[in-house]
Model the fold of this input.
Amino acid sequence: MEIAFCRIDDRLIHGQVATVWSKVTGCNRIMCCSDEVAQDALRKKLLLQIVPPGLKGYVVPVDKAVEAYNNPKYESFKTLFLFTNPRDVVRAVKGGIPFKSVNLGGKCFKDGDTMISQAVAVNADDVAAIKELIGMGIEVEIRKLANDTKIDAMEALKAKGLA
Done:
């Protein structure tokens, strides 16, 4: 399986992903990787309904995404991986998916979070996971839209006193 792109966006598939990111990355598959969402039948159904025509979509637990990546049966897949949080990306990398770069695209603000860009709010667990990814030699960049300039996640964390 070829990695087309890895994005963290708690909305998973939405307008920008369906219309822009899927085209920019040239993917033929979109894989939403979330234990929680994979167990939510309604959310799963809604996400699969908005997969762009001509592409195949999946909503799977993180461990199943790792299994699929490592299965030669899926070698023709050029996959856009979507995650809801950085901790799940760490799990996927430790499971054997060799992401070289991770895009932080959108995480909604919740009580206790810190905004590190206009579209990304992080909590302590997110910060630890981002630092872990960077420590593994993986680029973590912030971009809401495909044509936005990349912002280094570590620099954004430092600017907010989180690193």
